[in-house]
Automatic annotation (TrEMBL):
This is UPF0397 protein LHCIRMBIA953_02194. Pfam families: ECF-ribofla_trS. Belongs to the UPF0397 family. HAMAP family: UPF0397 (MF_01572). The keyword Nucleotide-binding does not apply. Keywords: Cell membrane, Membrane, Transmembrane, Transmembrane helix.
Amino acid sequence: MKKQDLSVKNVVAMGIGSAIYVILARFTSIPTPIPNTNIELVFPFLALFAAIYGAKVGFAVGFIGHTLSDFIMYGQTWWSWILATGVLGLIIGLASKKLDLKNVIFGIKQILLFNIVQIFANIIAWIVVAPIGDIIIYSEPANKVFVQGISATLSNGITILVVGTLLLKAYAGTKIKKGSLRKED
């Protein structure tokens, strides 16, 4: 198998994606009754970048974007949740080849695959990585962090299901499909 290094396009995507992540995290968070847990509209955007550019970019945008947004908004970082965000982007990015957004109409099969993957990614990120990290790194009480993790899984899963699916559908609609008579610019 050929080793693929980061292309200039992917490095640029990481930078732009991280910057957009910071802006969206700052201005589109909707508080919930669960302490330190919000409905985050930044995660559908992360899912879009991961699905388009793959696992490396998905991880980097999540990790760098979350690190910067934590530091800018709170003056400190919460590493367990930063890592979880990177893992979310990584897992969704791993499915990008199967989604084949450049060559396939984003139909029912791709929508189902995307949403199964993103739900799995949310479970791993917010019910495994973030709470266990909180317990190990910050000595947080287990009952508190697992409630936060379940809340984050539900809210992020729903926002990605709705907004992420719409973003991917719109993106896929802009791509020229194999066999099309239209010429690519």
